[in-house]
Amino acid sequence: MVNFPRQGAAGGTETMLLNVGPQHPSTHGVLHIMVELAGETVVTAKPVIGYLHRGIEKLAEGRTWQQNIALCDRLDYVAQWSNEWAYVRAVERLAEIEVPERADWLRTLMVELNRVTSHLIWYAGVTMDIGALGTPFIYAWVARERIFDFFESVSGGRMMPNWMRLGGVRTDIDAAALKDMRDFLEHDFPKEVDDYEALLVGNEIVVSRMKGVGTFSAEQLEEWGVTGPALRASGNDRDLRRDDPYGVYDKLDWKVWTDPVGDSLARCRVRLGELRESAKMCVQIIDGMPGGEISTKVSKALRPPEGDVMVRTESPRGELGILVASDGTTKPYRFRVRSPIFYNLSAMVHMLPGHLLADMLVIFGGIDTSMGEIDR
Amino acid sequence: MWIRTLLWLIGLLLLIAVVTVIGVWWERKFIGHLQGRRGPLHHGFHGLLQLPADMVKMISKEDIVPSGADRWLFQLGPILAVVPAVAAMAAIAFWRGFALLDMNHGLFYIFAFQTLLPLAFAVIGWSCASKFTLIGALRAAAQLISYEIPMLLTALGVVVVAGSMRFTDIINAQSGTWNIVKEPVGFAIFFIAILAEMNRTPFDLPEAESEIVAGYQTEYSGMKFGFVQLAEYSVLFTGSYLVSALFLGGWNMPFLPASPIWLLLKIVAVMTSTMWFRGTFPRLRVDSVMALSWKWLIPIALVNVMAVSALALALPHIY
Amino acid sequence: MFGSGLAKGLRITARRLLRRPITELYPFEHKNPPENSRTFIAMHVNEEGAPACRACGTCILGCPDSALHLVKDPEDNRRAAEFVVNSSRCTFCGLCVENCPYGVLYFTQDYERATYDRSTLVYHLIEEGRCTHEGEAGPK
Prior knowledge:
The structure holds 3 protein chains of 3 kinds. Chain A has 2 domains: about 10-50, no CATH class; about 55-375, Cytochrome-c3 Hydrogenase, chain B (Orthogonal Bundle). Helices cover about 45% and strands about 10% of the residues of chain A. Chain A has 14 helices and 8 strands. Chain A has helices at about 55-60, 65-70, 80-95, 100-130, 135-155, 175-200, 205-210, 220-225, 230, 240-245, 265-285, 340-350, 355-365, 370-375; strands at about 15-20, 30-40, 40-50, 165, 170, 305-315, 320-325, 335-340. The two termini of chain B are about 40 Å apart. Chain C is α+β, with helices and mostly antiparallel strands. In chain C, β5 (about 120-125) and β6 (about 130) form a beta hairpin. Chain C is elongated and about 85 Å long. The N and C termini of chain C lie far apart (about 65 Å). The interface between A and B is medium-sized, with 29 and 27 residues.
């Protein structure tokens, strides 16, 4: 049990213990933070996680390599395609399976589209937190629905695609659907992102609420292992898609968005920039897509050689690492996830004291939590 | 004589009920369409019966009193909120001399009752033994008290121009040009201050839904919540009336004969614009709210009063 | 100028006000999911009207959630007597449909089977050797 000191400042005031969550409109998912407040200022903050623990790492040991792909969808349920890709790459590296070129391009396309939807969800969440009743939320949702319809026509599932397979992907995408999505991303989507930007970072009220709030330096964040847009907003431009390329990222023309300031407004700008950049990347991928096979044939009862492999990908929230260890059977021996949000959340909660209660929610909006990955 | 008062009282109570029902319906439809959706649609014609259905639901709910709450203050809280809001409507003049109490200090009367609202919110927040409500209540009280001052100062500018605090006189003085033309800065400050007094976005911290889950109203269920909504919509109506009467010319319309229809249209327009703001803007943080009032609005309002008084002395034929 | 961002925000929402609403009135305007959509499954029938299932059990091996149950016909090893789907365990991953070597299972476009009675969630696709529903002819 957590012990909070009851004595406040030297004036003899007491501090107040407030439980933010786990049921709360603003913590994204079931996050419980025990905050000690002196007036409106946070004195200490302790996160309590585990409300969404489902034992995924243990469940994975009881399912075959192919069945685990469906399980990986449910880790970070907002960026599902990135999780699948990390797992599939790990097993392919372990079993030395070659992936045809078209499959690589298709995978990159869907993961970048997933980055777009993930950042749209972030946008919707952050605007709800700061109080814009729901209007930017619904605007982002409309664009997301369009992309989700595309997801459903490709993979059969809107949120849980279960589409990548060891050796390639499950279904192909026909040219008409690709052209449709390309037109949307090139013509309609940038105007929508302009609207999102105007409603968030162009709004003076938002700027007054976010500017200078939660300023963290790159050194502080690196100490805690923070990665992803939260780190890039503090000036460190670490991005695995460029530094350790996989998929077809090295064949595309794109840039990494950073911001030197490091406050909440910078995190918003970086994510909105990434939103635009991902849409542009998707257009390039659709243009450059080669033909060919979509999958190499892999046995459903695959038995990879013994050993373990750790693979890192850049999920929309940071550096996702998946370790798979095999002992030669059809089921994994160990499945371990290095969750990016776990480290982001720990870092930011540790650096929370001194901020106001309303700022706390703005800072959480900048972290963009998704509890499925923290708790697994 | 007392028949007139009785009829007026019944009329006012009916007006409040109608304002709440139609106001909530219009708000939900308007904000819905702002967001690309439709608002209530199925009950009644385009959702008009949704509010009566909600009223029935609220009346039939169990009245929960939290275990640590101060019972007497808990029951008293909504009444403290509704009574000033409703009583303030007694001075509203719908047409020349047509009000329940067309006092020669009508404006002062309304402001006096608005000053009681922070007390009501503080009582409500304290009586529910919950931290969320306490935070909400203190925020509400601080905000409401801070924004009364610019509101009063700019209203003072209007009184200087009109020469009287009676609503009929103030509106009659605008039969030529509206006060918004004579005092644009005053209008801007008054509008911002009245938004804060009505607890509307961007100043709706007291019920900041995403932070403290309905703020001071968190513990109210059933009809108590209904009462607080009633108070909120009465204050919205009164505030819109104040803006329309003090700055937008009341029942006057240029080039057209004066009639109470114009007043009603202006009130609806002001209410709709507050709903428009609610659908678009996020809310300000509590220290920004205080800073805005004390550091910006009050000095500008003081300068405004002095400037208006000087202009009224210097240019009496215009002012 | 201070306030220009606020004015732009108001303009954006006002513009949306003038457009048609984007919501679909769901129970009145029914929406069909795309062809590939993973919904509740059904079984193909062959030309004689018998279920096309060959009782190989590959779907059961593929299902990660133990949602399928197969009982072979005691006389004929390549026919199924019972095929039971427990849709309360199903996560609609689609591995059963994908793994079937004969293409016998398919997705219906039906996603509206919410019910008040939990027993209806466990349903038979083959009962006593006969197909229990109007299966499509197939496999394609």
